[in-house]
Amino acid sequence: MSTQFPTAPDPQPQGGAGPQPSPYPAQGFGPSTQSPYQAVAPPPQGLAQRGAPTDASQPGASPQPYQHPAQPGTGFPAQPVPPPGAPYPAQAGVGFPGQTVPPGAAYPAWPAPLPAEQTIYPRFFRVPGFKRYKAVLAAVLGLAAFFVVSIILSAVWVAVELATGSMTLESLSQLNMSNVVTPSFFLLNNLSLVACIGIAMAFAAIFFRQRPGWLASVQGRFRWGFFGRCLLIAAPIIAVDLVAEALIAGPWELRLRDHTVFMIVVILLTTPLQCAGEEYLCRGLINRGFGSLPKGRTAGVATGALVSTAVFAVLHGATDPYLIVFYCFFGLACCLLAWKTGGLEAAIAVHAANNVLGMWMVPFTDFSGMFDRGAGTGSPVVLLQMAALALACWLILRQAKRLGLPETGPPPAVTPGR
């Protein structure tokens, strides 16, 4: 059933005086060529469905999109009405400030959060629109956040120790690196480093809009299968090295202590995550941040490795020459693993195997001075540990090559926001 709209009669001239002014002025903007009582065209007949009328003047014609009629005097052309569920077409001149979007084009997207070309892990922050100050700021703020978390947890630890009577103000003032470590302090230290996982992920997302998976590897995820393979390679080698070191160092005074069960649980549950936290902060956020600064690939890899390794060594507070060499070697080896395997899994596996197995005697000894790394605490025995780590890294790199793990990503399939 169609609706007919009545047509108003034209005013009749009286006495030959010409057209009389209408009580209803013409509508529109600017001069109009229409009579104030111009007939309104009826809508098309034979609507097949809403938004898709059929032209009755052409038998057999397919439904045509309905259009709003042009508005005389307004400058607005006829506008098509899309069928139900379809988006309205883009309009020329609409877009972000200073941009022009041609008719039918989509709104411009934000800069892609992933590299526009094949990129290695240490330079993965070098995305379209990359700003050097953001890379430096992310690394600096990540370190600052770690120190803030450490201070907060330290304050909590001191409050708990004083409240339980385990420590007095006098004993607190006498703490130093040779006697500060208690079971609760060990747990506190591990938790502050575990927090670095979230800190690194957060600043990578804030400054570079990359989801956590891209900080784990160039494939956008943590590769658990490869991580397990790395553990199976590194753990036996490090275990053999520890047996050799124990034989060289002589007998240990090992016995069950009050803290034995507590320390076994804490080491097994938190030390692997503590190692992951160090890797996400140093080999992830800092290595990538400074590795993305130079234009050249080689310079980027070297810059990221040197800066992150220096930070890693300083955080351990070593002043003994042997220990300084060891921490620098360890940091560079983990940077190499991250670069050549395209992710943090291998570095975390080696780090976790080294720390968890290396603490096998801690629950059975007095470990209050385990964080004392001053001059004279190291020895040439660490060279054996460095040799074991070098062998483990070499075998892991061979395994990664055999598995065909990519060193670069992403294209060919760049997926913004993944």
Task: Provide a compact summary of the structure.
The protein has 418 residues and is mainly alpha-helical. 49% of the residues lie in helices and 3% in strands. The strands form three sheets. A two-stranded antiparallel ribbon has the order 1-2.
Short key terms for the protein model shown above:
two-stranded antiparallel sheet, 6 strands, two-stranded antiparallel ribbon, 49% helix, mainly alpha, 418 residues, globular
Describe the secondary structure blueprint for this structure.
Blueprint: E1 47-49, E2 52-53, E3 67-68, E4 79-80, E5 119-120, H1 132-164, H2 169-173, H3 183-208, H4 212-216, H5 224-249, H6 260-291, H7 297-315, H8 321-341, H9 345-358, H10 382-403, E6 408-409
Antiparallel strand pairs: 1-2, 3-4, 5-6
Molecular structure report:
This protein is mainly alpha-helical and 418 residues long. It has a domain of 291 residues. The protein contains ten helices and six strands, in the order βββββααααααααααβ. The strands form three sheets. It has a two-stranded antiparallel sheet. A two-stranded antiparallel ribbon has the order 3-4. Strand 1 and strand 2 form a beta hairpin. Helix 1 packs antiparallel against helix 3 and helix 1 runs antiparallel to helix 6. The longest helix is centred in the middle third of the chain and has 33 residues. About 13% of the residues have low confidence.
Distance between the termini: 53 Å
| Number of continuous helical runs | 10
Q: What average pLDDT do the residues reach?
A: 81
Helix/strand/pairing category: mainly alpha
Shape: globular
The SSE order reads EEEEEHHHHHHHHHHE
Work out the strand percent: under 5%
Q: Report the strand count.
A: 6
Rounded to the nearest angstrom, the radius of gyration is 36 Å
Largest sheet: 2 strands, antiparallel
Low-pLDDT regions:
13-17, 22-39, 46-57, 90-101, 105-111
What topology, given as strand order, has the largest sheet?
1-2
What is the percent of helical residues? Answer: 40-55%
